[in-house]
Amino acid sequence: MLIYELTLTIEDEWFDAVSAHAQLTVLDMLDTDCFAGITLESAAGRLRIRAKAADQAMLDRYLDVFAPDLRADFLEHFPLGIHIERAVWQLLGEHDNHDQEK
Predict the structure, then answer these.
(1) What's 37's domain CATH number?
(2) What is the pTM of this model?
(3) Which residue stretches of the chain have pLDDT < 70?
(4) Which residues contact 81 (CB under 8 A, 6 or more apart)?
């Protein structure tokens, strides 16, 4: 499993508008059927999108077929005031409280 992560650092004046747009972008990303799930998180002046792809082929499909249009739409709405970092992570494990016997 791969995690495609986007971290957006946003100037204060744009934060609310970018947050609203990101909610829609996450739904568009899910509609591509390239991801098993997506989270949207926020912290002071930042948003993070983490999308789980089953394998490199699914991530490549998203990046080649769908990402260019979503990126163009984002830049049309927010040409300035946002810094975006992208990373791909290999998921090594997931754990929660139910994984441990008590």
Answers:
(1) 3.30.70.100
(2) 0.88
(3) 99-102
(4) 10, 11, 13, 14
